[in-house]
Amino acid sequence: MTPTAPIQAAPQPLKHWRVAVPESRQLNVLHDMLAVRGATVVRCPLVSIRDNPDEHTIKAWLLQFCASPPDDLIILTGEGIRRLTGFAERWGMLEPWASALGKVRKIARGPKPASALRPHQLKPNVLAVAPTTDGVMQTLQHEELVGRKIAIQLYGEEPNLKLQHFLMAKGAHIDTVAPYIYASDAEAEQVTQLIDDLINHQLDILVLTSIVQIKRLMSVAKKQGREAQLIAAFKAIYIAAIGPIVAQMLNELEVPIAIMPDDKFFMKPLVRKIVTFVAANPKP
Question: 0.70 cut: is pTM over it?
Fold first, then answer.
């Protein structure tokens, strides 16, 4: 009988590291990717994403979009396309929605909309030079937009007046849709515990994947009179940011970022960056 080779334990480069994950949409996926690498993962969902309850407005927008597709659709998030597809499916409009999507020029702020378009066998026609509002504007800066009908799928309920004013100044006719909203997803005591852990230096790495997470932490800390303490705690911990939008908000708070993917702003590249950083900065 041939002896069975011993099973080799998977490497755990993050062993002994405490990593806070204030994530909601992909909490389980991110948790598992970190835990399998040995990290002690502290979970604290701060926000949830929900369909916009104003279904009348969403339905009217979808009907208009399908009946008379605009020239361009600016897609700010993949989540928005998935939510609109969900609405269309529930209302028996999936086929005309997919057909209209295929007719318009799809301008994506970043790479994530590509995965949301894939079920329709579509992809973005234009990818912004940077995954930010400024990146979208820079991409369209030299285009002739006078008279063009441009639909904008918003990021949550943020109206993005900067982008709207830019397009209107170039003579475009714009129409916006906000298919989802952000809502608090954690009891105040859960958020308070995370703030306590940050202030008391009980964590090694804080992973931030959305500016909504930062706003939620700052809002709770402000109500508790601990805003300055939280910002100081941010500066004392290694921050892992998913991409430039989160980085911009942290920069405004003068909070340094230790870890961020170079270009692909997804979970896997972020986790790989964390592993690389930890290897270069071992704990004492």
Answer: yes
